[in-house]
């Protein structure tokens, strides 16, 4: 299978192993937390879990841009190892929690680590591969493992709890993060590339989000990712309600619905490496959006449990098409030095979309019939598809002709095509900082929003 070809790369194999172990640890800890909250105070279990999930979103939205802002100045390898070790330490301490607020603090801390670890993993991945096709296959493999973890974690947690108590399960989760840290310790990370960004806390923290939103194809990508959030939130929030309250089934049918969407996503993950050879990423995402819209509308033709399974399966396929190629678009849209800031911006903005989508999905199940709710989401997804296509033009080009006005400024820099000037001898080794002049020039190259390209050429 083509999807497994990247595992021939030793560094990626270790990197992939570390991420997979950490992902499984995260899945187990989420389930264990829910059961632990019920055990601690079954009357307030739902309140504790909902607050913990809200804390997770706050951590993801607020912390990721800060990590991305300074990732180019910090050793990524040791930072990722630190996040793994910190999560392990928190999980070791979690069984000693005796109050609800203890759980809130610990879960918020765990998710701060997750908000730092995940964008760094995503930003480092393209640096391991020189070939874009191999990177595309690695993205598909990561997607498949993510879906497999979603399917496996609940079953594995249930099996483990037959012979382990909560304390042992949390210790096992902690051991998973330590194993991930050990695997990362063996990986040879690509060297950090110096960024030419100016100093200043707010400038660095806001750089990723501002640059992301100034890039038309990334605004289109965000629109497509929002469709994935709307449909994904529908599944996560409403599967149990639809299966048990609408169709009168038991919990096993709820689990089967989650399996259906996971299976659809995994099948499409296998197909994506081939699709990427014959279709543009824009067309792949457009196909994913169309699949999502058609599947939601089709439920009105087959308003039954069978129809629901079919819709969920197709939404899984659509989700893989909408989300998996995102890394390639971000790689195409950013310089190597600024890539962590862009990936962190993607992480933050998409989770803001998921937060909104969760609220919408909850209201749909509360106030609308199942078929009407799906039609509303199909309409919203169609609007986002049109917005995405408007931002991300069909003739989108990476290499653009543009003009630089004459500028004199001061910032860290290397002597690349934008920095050809004389020195007096005191400036020191590169990258160095001194005031320098840029003459007016018109040229063409792969265009990214950065310190020298502050707006998109029209």
From the 3D structure, determine the CATH topology of the largest domain.
Growth Hormone, Chain: A
CATH architecture of the largest domain: Up-down Bundle
Give the end-to-end Cα distance, rounded to a whole number of Å: 42 Å
Q: Major sheet: order of its strands?
A: 1-4
Mean pLDDT across all amino acids: 81
Low-confidence stretches: none
Number of domains: 2
Report the strand count: 4
Largest sheet, strands/sense/barrel: 2 strands, antiparallel
- Compressed to H and E, one letter per element, the order equals HHHHHHHHHHHHHHEEEE
Count of alpha and pi helical runs: 14
Per DSSP, what share of the residues sits in E-state strands of 2 or more residues? Answer: 5-15%
Oligomer type? single chain
Structural class: mainly alpha
Radius of gyration: 23 Å
Percent of residues in helices comes to over 70%
CATH-defined superfamily of the largest domain: MFS general substrate transporter like domains
| Global morphology | globular
The first-level CATH class name of the largest domain? Mainly Alpha
């Amino acid at each position: 299978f083509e999807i497994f070809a990247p595992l021939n790369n030793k560094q990626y194999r270790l990197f992939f192993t570390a991420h997979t172990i950490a992902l499984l640890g995260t899945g187990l800890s989420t389930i264990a937390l829910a059961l632990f909250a019920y055990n601690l105070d079954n009357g307030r279990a739902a309140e504790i879990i909902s607050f913990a999930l809200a804390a997770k979103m706050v951590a993801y939205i607020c912390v990721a841009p800060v990590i991305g802002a300074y990732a180019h100045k910090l050793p990524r390898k040791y930072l990722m190892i630190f996040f793994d070790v910190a999560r392990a330490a928190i999980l070791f301490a979690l069984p000693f929690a005796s109050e609800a607020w203890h759980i809130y603090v610990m879960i918020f801390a765990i998710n701060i680590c997750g908000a730092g670890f995940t964008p760094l993993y995503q930003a480092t991945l393209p640096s391991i591969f020189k070939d874009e096709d191999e990177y595309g296959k690695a993205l598909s493999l990561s997607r498949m493992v993510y879906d497999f973890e979603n399917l496996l974690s609940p079953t594995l947690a249930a099996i483990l709890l037959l012979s382990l108590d909560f304390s042992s399960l949390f210790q096992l989760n902690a051991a998973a993060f330590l194993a991930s840290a050990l695997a990362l310790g063996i990986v040879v990370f690509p060297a950090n590339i110096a960024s030419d960004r100016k100093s200043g806390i707010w400038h660095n923290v806001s750089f990723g989000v501002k640059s992301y939103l100034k890039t038309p194809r990334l605004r289109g990508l965000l629109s497509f990712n929002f469709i994935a959030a709307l449909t994904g939130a529908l599944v996560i929030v409403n599967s149990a309600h639809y299966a048990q309250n609408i169709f009168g089934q038991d919990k096993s049918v709820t689990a089967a619905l989650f399996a259906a969407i996971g299976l659809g996503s995994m099948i499409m993950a296998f197909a994506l490496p081939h699709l990427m050879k014959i279709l543009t990423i824009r067309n792949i995402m457009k196909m994913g959006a169309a699949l999502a819209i058609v599947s939601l509308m089709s439920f009105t033709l087959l308003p039954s449990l069978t129809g629901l399974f079919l819709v969920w399966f197709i939404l899984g396929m659509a989700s893989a098409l909408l989300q998996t190629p995102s890394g390639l678009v971000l790689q195409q849209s950013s310089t190597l030095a600024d890539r962590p800031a862009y990936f962190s911006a993607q992480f933050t903005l998409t989770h803001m979309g998921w937060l909104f989508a969760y609220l919408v999905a909850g209201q749909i199940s509360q106030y609308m019939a199942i078929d009407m709710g799906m039609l509303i989401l199909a309409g919203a997804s169609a609007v986002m598809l049109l917005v995405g296509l408007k931002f991300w033009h069909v003739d989108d080009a990476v290499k653009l002709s543009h003009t630089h006005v004459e500028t004199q400024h001061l910032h860290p820099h290397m002597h690349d095509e934008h920095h050809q000037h004389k020195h007096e001898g005191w400036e020191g080794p590169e990258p160095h900082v001194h005031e320098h002049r840029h003459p007016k020039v018109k040229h063409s190259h792969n265009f990214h929003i950065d310190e020298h390209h502050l707006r998109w050429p029209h």
